[in-house]
Amino acid sequence: MPSTSPSLHIPEPKHRPGASHDFSDMRPPPAGLLDRPAIDISAGQAEPLARGLVRVLNEQGEAVGSWDPKLDPDRLRGGLKSMLTTRAYDDRMMRAQRQGKTSFYMKCTGEEAVAVGAALALRPDDMLFPTYRQQGLLITRGWPLVDMMCQVLSNSRDRMKGRQLPVFYSSKEAGFFSISGNLGTQFSQAVGWAMAAAYKKDSRIAAAWIGEGATAEGDFHHALTFAAVYNAPVILNVVNNQWAISSFQGIAGGEKATFASRGIGFGIPSIRVDGNDLLAVHAVTAWAAERARAGLGPTLIEHFTYRQAAHSTSDDPTRYRPADEPEHWPLGDPVDRLRGHLTVSGHWSEAQHEAFITETSEEVRAALREAESYGTLTDGPSVSPATMFDDVFKEMPWHLRRQRQELGY
Amino acid sequence: MPTDILMPALSPTMEQGKLAKWLKKEGDTIKSGDILAEIETDKATMEVEAVDEGVLAKILVPDGTDDVAVNTPIGVIAAEGEDVSAATAAKPASNGSAGEPPKGDTPAPAAAQAEPGQAPKVPAQPKAPSAVAAPPQPETVVDPEVPEGTEMVTQTVREALRDAMAEEMRRDRDVFVMGEEVAEYQGAYKVTQGLLQEFGPKRVIDTPITEHGFAGLGVGAALAGLKPIVEFMTWNFAMQAIDQIINSAAKTLYMSGGQMGAPIVFRGPNGAAARVAAQHSHDYAAWYSNVPGLKVVMPYTAADAKGLLKAAIRDPNPIIFLENEILYGQSMPVPKLDDFVLPIGKARIHRPGKDVTIVSFGIGMTYALKAAEELAKEGIEAEVIDLRTIRPMDVATVVKSVQKTNRCVAVEEGFPQSGVTAEIGMRIMEEAFDYLDAPVARVTGKDVPMPYAANLEKLALPNVAEVIAAAKAVCYRS
Predict the structure, then answer these.
(1) Residue B350 catalytic?
(2) B456 falls within a domain
(3) CA neighbor of B412 nearest in space, from B320, B322, B349, B343
(4) Closest CA to A234 of A263, A275, A277
(5) Residue B149 touches partner A, C-beta closer than 8 Å
(6) Catalytic residue among B159, B231, B280, B423
(7) Residue where one domain finishes, among candidates B73, B89, B105
(8) pLDDT per residue over A55-96, tens digit each?
C-alpha cells in the first residue's frame, strides 16, 4: 500500500556481515549487446549506453560485438602484465605497512582494469587527474616502481620530500596530477586543465577519476556543468566500486539511477562500462578520447566494478559487508578475465602465466629491496629538516628563513 | 639471541588492541613473512607478520587478550636450534631497548591481567607509554562546577564525547547526528560508537560524501526546529562547507531580524594527528574564532569534552566544536553526575602558579602542562590556563592571572599570523598592559603546510622545549 504521509527512506545494502552474499538482482547484460556508436552522438542518443553496460568479453572469454578494440596479442599481454604488477605491488606494499615500514596503504585489487585499460587507450602525454586508487595508471605508463615505493616509505629518495601521505603520488613527468585527500577536487581541475589545453590548441586531453561516493560532492556537478558548457576535451570517469568505506553505492544515490546517467542531464554523452573487462574499458576510453580530440567535448564513463580489498589499511570490510561478497562479484576478476581471453584465443598458456607471476613478483621484490636501501618510515635515512621550509612559496620569504634558522638549519 | 615480537601499531595513533588469535604455537618454526597472529582494533583486523626467522619460543600474551598496548612484547622468537627454555630465561636481557616500554618485571598494563572480553573501566595503573604522544598525567585540578566529593570515572575523550551525545539524544528527541561513516561504521574515529544501535538510522545518519551538502542540510533542519549534530570526518574536509557554516549558520539569526536561527553543532577532529600530512592536519581554531554569530569550543580534558558538548547541543546558537584525534584515545577523570553541563565561554585555571601565566587550549595544553612541570623543577611556578572556549574568549580569567604573574606565554598548534595567540596577546595589551613585566610571548606551529615525515612533522609543531624557553625568556631567566 502506498504511504499516505511523507516518510524518510534510509538506504541499506541487501546484506550485512553474518549473511551470505546476494547478487541475485544483478543480471549483467550479455557482452556485445550494445553497439559502438559514431563519436558525434548526442547525449540523448547515448542514453541506452548510460543505463546499460558495455561489455566485450563474454562468459567463454571471447571478445564479441562492435566495441571489441581488436588489440594485438602483445598489447593484451602488456595489459595483463600491468594488472599483475599492480596487484603484486599492492600486496607487497600492504605487507610493508603491516611490518611498520610505512604508516598507510590503499590497494586497488579487483579494479586494476579501470586504470590499466584507460592508460593503454590514452596517449602517454595525456594529463591524468586520478584518485588514490589508480596506481595502475603510473604502472602502465612505466613509471619506476622504486620511485613509487620511495614515496610510500617516505625515505630519502621520496620525490615529495616527506610531505605527502603514502600513495598520494604526483609526477609531472608522467602527467599524473597530485592526489588530493579532499575528495573530488581533481574533477573540476581536470576540466579547467582541458579548457586551458583547448585554448592553447594543445592536442593533449585530460582524464579524471572519482569514486561513486564522491559524486555527491559539489565538485562532480561543477565539473559536469563546465565540461558541457565549454565542450572541454576531457574524459570524466566515475569508478563505481560499490563501496565508499562502509557506505554502499545506494548512499550516493545508486539505487535510483546509474551514475553514468547523471551525465545525460548535463548534455554529456555517457557510458556505463563493465570495469572488470579490460577490453571494454579500453574501447570506451578510446572512443571518448577520439571525441575529445575531434573537438566533440566531454564524455562521462561509469566503470562498474567491485572493491575487493579494504578501503585502506585502517579499514576492515568484514565489519560491514558479507565476507564472501568479493569472491562472488558477478563480473568476475579483471585479471582472470583477460587471462581467459588470451588463453581462449590461443595466445597464452598456464606455464606462461605462472612464469609471468613469478617474474612480476620478483620485479616487485627487487624494487622494494632497492627502495628500502634508501630508508623506510622507521628506519634509515629520511628527508633533511633543512628542506621543510622549501616550496611553501617559489622563493623563501624572510619570515620562513628566520623560522628555519631558529630550528638550527 | 632471542628476539621479542612486539605488539604492532596499525596506525600511528593506535595505542592498544586485542590479541585475537595466535596462528602459530610455541615450538613452531617461523619464516620471515609468516603470519603469526591476528590483532583486532576498533577499526580493523590485522596480521602480525614475522620479520625474524627462528622458532616461536614463547607466547607472552595469550589469545583473546584485550587492550594490549602497542610495543608490548607478545612473544619471543629464538634462533633455529637455540634452546627454547634458555630463550625464555634470556628474555629480560632485551630490557632497555630505546623507545620501548619497560619489560621484564613490569608486566604490560592491562595486557596480561585484564580479563578477556572485558575492558577495565578504571585502569589499576597508568598506561604504558605509547609509540606516539605519551598521554598526559591524570588531571588533578577539579573543575569548580563539580560538587566536592563527586565520584570520578576514568574515560577516554572519545567515550566522553559519545556519552554527551547519547545523553542529549535520550533527553531530547530533536537531537540527531549525521555525517560520513557515523552510523554503520560507528564513526571514522569511533566517536559515535553504539549510537546507531541505540537511536536507529533516522537519528544517526550516514550521509553522502559532501560536507557542503550535509552542512546545508543541517542548517535547514535546524531552521525547521531540530537540533543537528553534524560530524565532519575532519575539519579539513569542512572547508567546502564553510559557506554554509559562516554565510548561513552564523548569520541567519541576525539577517532575519532575530526571527530564525540555527541551533546546530558542527564537530569533529581538528588539527594535527600523526603522519596524516597537510590536508588532514590543519588547525582551524583561528578561522572560526573570527566570525560573529559562532561560538567556538576546543576542549582538552575528557570532562570538558563531555560537559561542553552537552552545553553546545543545548545552546540555541551554531557551535563549532573542535576535537583532536590524538586526544580521543587519552583517558582522564570525568565526574559521575547525571547531568554534567559546563558553561561555554569560561576558561579554567588548570594549574595554579605565580611566576608566569601560560595560556593554551585543546592539545596545546599538553605542551603547556609538561612545560609547567619542567619549569617547577627550576623554581618557576607557571599558572596554566585552559581557555576551553575560543569564542567568546574568557579574557577576564587571563587578565586576572597576568595581573598576578605579570608575564604571559600563549601556546597553540596553529600558525602564528592572525592566530588565537595573536588575539590573546592583543587582549592582554589592551586590558593589562600596565601589569606586564615583559612582552607577551607566543609558541605556535611553524609557517609550513604540515609535512608527512615524522621528523619534519615534529619540527613543524610546537614543542615543550619552546614553551619552556619562552617562559624563561619572559621571566628573564636563562
Answers:
(1) no
(2) yes
(3) B322
(4) A263
(5) no
(6) B280
(7) B89
(8) 999 999 999 999 999 999 999 999 999 999 999 999 999 999
Domain count within chain B: 3
Judge whether B100 counts as a catalytic residue. no
d(CA B383, CA B354): 6
Q: Which residues pair with A210 in a beta bridge?
A: A238
Render pLDDT for B120-167 as a digit per residue (tens, 0 to 9): 333 333 344 344 444 444 444 445 568 889 999 999 999 999 999 999
Using DSSP's 3-state secondary structure scheme, residue B383 falls into: strand
For residue A360, give Cα distances in angstroms to A117, A139, A309, A342, B178: 19, 12, 20, 18, 45
Element (H, E) at B3: strand B3-6
pTM greater than 0.90: no
Instruction: Phi first, then psi: give them for residue B466, nearest 5 degrees.
Output: -65, -35
Task: Name the phi and psi angles at B423, rounded to 5.
Answer: -65, -45
Helix (H) or strand (E) holding B322: strand B319-323
ipTM of the complex: 0.86
Cell representation of residue B43:
577499526
- Averaged pLDDT for residues A18-33: 94
Nearest residue in B to A182, CA atom: B237
The 10s digit of each residue's pLDDT in A26-55 is 999 999 999 999 999 999 999 999 999 999
CA distances to A205, A274, A300, B303, B401 from A270, in Å: 17, 14, 5, 54, 66
> What is the per-residue pLDDT for A46?
98
The cell numbers describing B93, all together, are: 636481557
B201 to A400: CB separation less than 8 angstroms, yes or no: no
The answer to whether A53 and A29 are in contact (CB under 8 A) is: yes
B145 lies in a domain? no
CATH code of B31's domain: 2.40.50.100
Is the residue at B316 inside a domain? yes
Q: Residue A167 above 50 pLDDT?
A: yes
The answer on B301 and B163 residing in a single domain is yes
Q: Sort out which chain B residues have CB atoms less than 8 A from A180's CB and list them.
A: 279
> Residue B206's beta-bridge partner residues?
B179
Nearest chain B alpha carbon to A180? B279
Domain-by-domain residue ranges, chain A?
47-313+324-378, 385-409
Domain coverage including residue B234 = 152-335
Q: Which amino acid is at B316?
A: P
Rounded to an integer, what distance in angstroms lies between the CA atom of residue A367 and that of residue A301?
Answer: 34
Q: What is the CATH number of domain A47-313+324-378?
A: 3.40.50.970
**Chain A residue numbers touching B131 (CB-CB < 8 A):** none
Residue B195 and residue B177 in contact, taking contact as beta carbons nearer than 8 Å: yes
For residue A279, which of A140, A124, A117 has the smallest C-alpha distance? Answer: A117
Q: Range with the lowest mean pLDDT among A59-73, B60-74, B183-197, B283-297?
A: B60-74
- Interface probe for B, chosen from A107, A182, A212 (most Cβ of B below 10 Å), is A182
Q: How far is A78 from chain B (nearest CA, A)?
A: 30
Q: Is residue B124 part of a domain?
A: no
Q: Give the tens place of pLDDT for each residue, B402-449.
A: 999 999 999 999 999 999 999 999 999 999 999 999 999 999 999 999
**Rounded Cα–Cα distance for residues A292 and A290 (Å):** 5
Nearest by CB to residue B212, choosing from A218, A244, A318, is A218
Q: Which of B11, B206, B454 sits opposite A247 (nearest CB)?
A: B206
Return the C-alpha cell found at A288: 571518448
Per-residue pLDDT, A132: 97
Task: Quickly list H helices, B341-452.
Answer: 364-377, 395-405, 420-432
Chain-chain contact of B207 with A251 (C-beta, under 8 angstroms): yes
**Residue located via cell numbers 602465466:** A353
Q: Check residue B83 and give its pLDDT.
A: 56
Strand A247-248 and strand A243-244: the pairing is antiparallel
Q: What is the tally of helices (H) and strands (E) in chain A?
A: 12, 7
For residue B203, give the chain A residue with the closest CA: A10
CB–CB contact A181 B205 (8 Å): no
